[in-house]
Batch of 2 targets.
Target 1
Amino acid sequence: MSEEEELERIRRRKLEALQRRIYEEQQLEKQREVEMKIQAILRQILTPEARQRLANIKMVKPEFARQIEIQLIQLFQRGVLNSPLSDRQLKEILSRIQRGKREIRIRRV
């Protein structure tokens, strides 16, 4: 392989790596924008105490918290939620959701 071919191969690899990095950065920026929009809507539909409760849940169960956020936003967009949800109301919603799930316990004998 000649030096020119080797240089061209190196340039191509560097260009591909740069394009991959740019794509990843764009995806991260899109994710940040989506997260900012979600948080802005949640500020409208939840009281500070309810937002704090949701943040606490997010630390322990991030997937569950994301599902709750999406459901709340959908309810807001449909016009079902008109005033900010209090912490008490959010707790009621969470308890209703939890009732629907079966608890699995493992007992050691």
Target 2
Amino acid sequence: MDSTVGSAPPLSEGHESRIRGVERPATLADVTDQASDRRQEALIQAGLILASELSLPAVLQKIVALAAQVADARYGALGVLASTGEEIHDFITVGVTEEERRAIGDLPTGGGILGALIKDPKPLRLRRIADDPRSVGFPPSHPPMTSFLGVPVRVRDRVYGNLYLTEKRGADEFTEEDQRAVITLASQAGVAIENARLWQDNRRLAVLEDRERIAKDLHDGVVQSLFAVGMALQAGQDLVGDPSAVRDRLQESVGRIDDVIRDLRNYIFGLGPAGTADRELDRALNDLADEFRRGSDVAIRVEVDPEAASVAAAYAADLIQVAREAISNAVRHGKPQTLSVELTRDGDEVVLEVEDDGQGFDPDVPTAGGRGLTSLRERAEAMGGRLEVSSSAGEGTAVRARVPA
């Protein structure tokens, strides 16, 4: 039969990719482009993943896993070099089970092909490892490995280690594109390793500094205060015949111990002794007012009772947040001309009051966004206190957080 009988006419322009609504089959070029796009997406995701991790062991493990994924390798490893840069100090793997690792025995130190990258830190791609004259074979119980791709990982100006990938899936060898992708990943890995090491160093330094600070503060403040309380109680032995004097001495000592407990808490949180903490709370509220003054035309007045600041030192962070939210609500919603922030002592309570002369509102009527009152109430209750709100249309608003002294 003539093959031209009944055949369709040539495709017109604009219809070469469709026949009666059916998509044309994907070509090899399409598949290659899609694979390239997926690889680029994988590299972008890899960069994000590495940038979000600050634990060095976790970073190293993720580098190996991502490299194997990007190059589509069955096995992957990162050989971390010792400080001398001449042998492998640590060896992180993927694709090899714990049972297989135990059967293999000791970790490699940097001989054979692995050592080739240590001596000459340049990308290395092999179709068959065994064909390279530098290969020394594998130990007993080692999984068979044929194709190979190795890339150095640099941290600043030195080689931190090498990425080793073997057994390309679905092909006899790794491609140039695989190599380029792993080189890109190795660059990202170098930055991630440096970030993780700096983070660890900073944490270690912070811990040491905190230990020194707390030790000094405890010695100069808390220990001396407790010593003074002990001396006062010891001297109280001479007052045994006067119950009233003994009671006064005990009450005084209990009060001083309360001061020591407050100082101890402040030392731990880095606020310093009570006097310093008081100044910190006062300064923080004034700094907060300055912050809002710069962003609005509202005249803001701050008044802090030193005694209130002293007994409220433990709540400093939460009180500052209450003030911040209350001022923000007033400036955004009340449109006031003046606003005052006061911290005072009222019996057994400390009162933080933020009052404005704005347009006010009805606290009993729900408003869009809730004016942040729910958050303020929750924070006040978390301190063991309560929130009071006084307001009416055209009369301004007063928000008071009352917490135990």
